[in-house]
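seq:
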Amino acid sequence: MRIIRLLVAISIMAVCCTEMAAQGVIPTNGMKVDGIVTVPVTNIGSNGPQLQSDNSVKFFVRAPEAQKVQVDLGGTKYDMTKGDNGTWTVTTKPQVPGFHYYSLIIDGVSVADPASQSFYGCSRWSSAIEIPEKGMDDFEVQNVKHGEVRTVHYYSNVEKAWRPLMIYTPANYDVVKADLPVVYIQHGGGEDHRGWMEQGRTAQIMDNLIAKGKARPMVIVSSNSNVRSTSGGFGGGGYSWEGMQTFRKELLENIIPFVEKNYKVRKDRKGRAMCGLSMGGGQSFYIGLRDPEVFANVGVFSTGMFGGIRGASNFDLEKEVPGILTDTHTFNKNFDVFFMTCGEQDPRIEYTRNIVKQMRNKSVNVRFNSYPGDHEWQVWRKSLHEFVQYLFKE
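struct:
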């Protein structure tokens, strides 16, 4: 009976257009309605959640047979109230700007909302809502020349299988004769190659910065670092040098050679950068900083390996990156850009600040910035936005 109720609920989940019309609201994606509510760009059609003027969100679920319905928005569960017509509603507390995953919980079963787009994150497909932030127009599609995001496949000799890449190429890439610099960008745990290009809005950020002359045209390669080696070992593990050897092998021996063979990119260390968020930030820290013959530019965003997450403690900088504190002159000479970030409400923030302080006390050339927000995409978008403006200035 529970499954039957769930199927019925999903089939008619969300308020129909006629009901919204009766309320005087017929939303259109991304537009304000009656000057009060906004329909998020993440909605599908006209029956998704509404963004209120104070950034609270009103959700609608049409599920007349359900006994209990909740919205789980970013880990906070809101109980919904059932109306006489079988439509459940709730208005959340005001939300901070940015990208937020959410799910519907109908009689104890967590499901995606068919009235919103779904994204792969947190190791599952989830609905999401976008809360716009004033002044962040570079995260939106603008009237500029647009590049392309291409999905291609390469053969992995580590996994013995074909694997995907998503590659951003800037406007006019097909007619450019000179090789372009390239950034290898890594997702976080529970995500894959789609994260930076979809949730992260990499193409929008790059198109707008390049059009303004704030960033050089460059290629950005987003790979799936969840690699399983046929000889044993898993390629995630961005929190120890040993744990990431499978992905390091994949990146250096398969991904980079494929990109350099098939795309017009530079093949020198000064023309390459590596960056990533969370787990990908740990990968960028270790691989980028311990392979200076490959990368001269490294960005580390919101990694938890310094502390702030379970299992992270007593991080020994010199042990993990030999020479960073004892041969700082050579370390600094190896890197054109070394940039770190973290969200100001992220549990990792104080540990990150402390590690930056340790490095600066030894005169390591590290740039650091923090942004309002927790462990979330708006922080990582801002991290990428700033990082690429520093790159390839020679």
